[in-house]
């Protein structure tokens, strides 16, 4: 016999728009003590200290309400402490899910009170938020930022996102430090973060200064990313006990249930407040709660009693809320509703968001369409937006699920936006060093759509993939595709309104290949003729981005020809065409450095740094120039800045390590050179200098191992042979040391190696060989005084060890 329902006729007082969803508090005050203890273990000052507090429990356990109430109750003991909450689900809240509310708050406040902070970070902020306008932005966008989509042939490199995120990090750090604001950011659904936000948190854990004023609490339903877990204090919110469940029910205004009723509620809810609330609502519409039925069955029975109108309203509210509501009744209603009705609602939201900047924040609607081809088509504009910002890891995370599907890769009709998404993925893949993956798709596309609107782009990409990005380059195949492209353009696109633009763009690829083939005159002519035609037909304004790229390529060819005067002139023209694109300034600075015009180079490096998000390459290039200028302090500052911005940059670790080695800072040098070989284990020069450093530290066996490793990667590296000889000599293995010096002398005409061999031969008693090497060193330009001293020493004291 069916038992009576709980509390018939009682309605929950805190009703939202739908009368079946509620704002019941899920606060678990008994957990505050555990949160306090965990919070005390956060330590941003210690490089190994925990940066984040991670609270783990199944969805609906009350994590968000509990942590929010805890922070409101204990507001960091500082006046004005700010507590912000955010949903970290990348599908419902976009590429900066979890971080967006903090950034929005900081920008809005700083625009009014500290606009200089926004201005200082504008190169990052206006790129990561391309539609955002700010009165504090002072510099115009570069041509990439203002060009139409069909002209954006210049894509950001794959590590550009790291620069943007370092810029956002530095903005938030300076904002909180300047204002004295402290903040707790609570990120719900932190196991669903976008790769972009995960990367930001990695930067925060590495750089650490932001942790002085910002505490981040990660609320995790399942498994936390292991990299973030490494920097977190982790605690678990346990399931409700029976007494806690009773207390919550009473706090919601209901009579205390009988013991057996409480047992049923507790078991069915699995100790989660959200499920407990849902069960009480089921009882409220006269659905009894027998223990042998599952939780889902109770919800289904409850939904069956609502009526179609109320269920439809509940569905509409859930979908229009971007499927972010964690209420079990709303979710179950969505899961069990007619698929066609669900899809219609998602399409309505997609239509409302179309061409709006908010669309990129809610891909959940696009991925909720039933047919995969419909998903691809719907996602295409959003995917292009992510790619144009430069957020490649989040873009790939969203779209790569469709990459391997052969039917979707050839979805008609070859000239649509969804086809363009695949093509742009191919561009990025070959720049990531995955040219073989890219080439396979480009072949497939051309086979299926030989007359596509995008055919010139496909053939251009093939020529670049084979001739520039494939290792080793295949210039024969690259040339074939470049010539085929020009042929197709002449036959299929002659009547196209952008015929000359498309043709010049294709000639640009051929010019690159001609330059790689050392046919510089042809390369230069292709560029200059193309520039003249573009200017004559389109003037200065139309296709300005591509015109600047053509001029830039021409400058590079002049530089390769060592016509530095002409290259300088053309670089200046390039910068005049796109004065806000910092990479042009960096490349001009690099050329000026090569020809020893250091003062001018410094000027352009500074310009590049000012025009870009934190630009580690410019700092690295300038550091290497400061080394040449013997300004060790300035070089170290720039090397350290490059490492700070991009710890994966092995060249920065190597440069810093060599600098420290020369200064006798051997322990620091070892750390830097260890990092260099970690990030680039095939870097023979790094292994060589690491070997020298270990020798200075008295670790002879490790030094030998390091130098031999260097020679496995480059057996023609004379420094490694010479240094290995030094290590072997130190260990008393003189015959082996002589063999190494023989190799160094064979490979190089550096007189120092011959001089070193003369010293060793003299020590081994080979007077004739030593004297022969002394004369050979003198002929090679060795220091005359040192040569004279050694000659006298060998002559007077044959067979006696020399210093």
Structure commentary:
Strand 3, helix 9 and strand 4 form a beta-alpha-beta unit. The model is unreliable at 1-18 (pLDDT under 50). A five-stranded parallel beta sheet has the order 2-3-4-1-5, with helices on both faces. With 803 residues, it is mainly α. Helices cover 64% and strands 4% of the residues.
- Our estimate of the beta-strand percent is under 5%
Largest sheet composition: 5 strands, parallel
Widest beta sheet: strand line-up: 2-3-4-1-5
Share of residues in helices: 55-70%
- The whole-number mean of residue pLDDT values reads 92
- Report how far apart the termini are: 105 Å
In one word, what is the shape?
A: globular
Low-confidence segments, given as residue ranges, are: 1-18
- Helix and strand composition category: mainly alpha
Helix count, per DSSP?
42
The radius of gyration computed from the alpha-carbon positions, rounded to a whole number of angstroms, is 33 Å
State the total count of DSSP E strands: 5
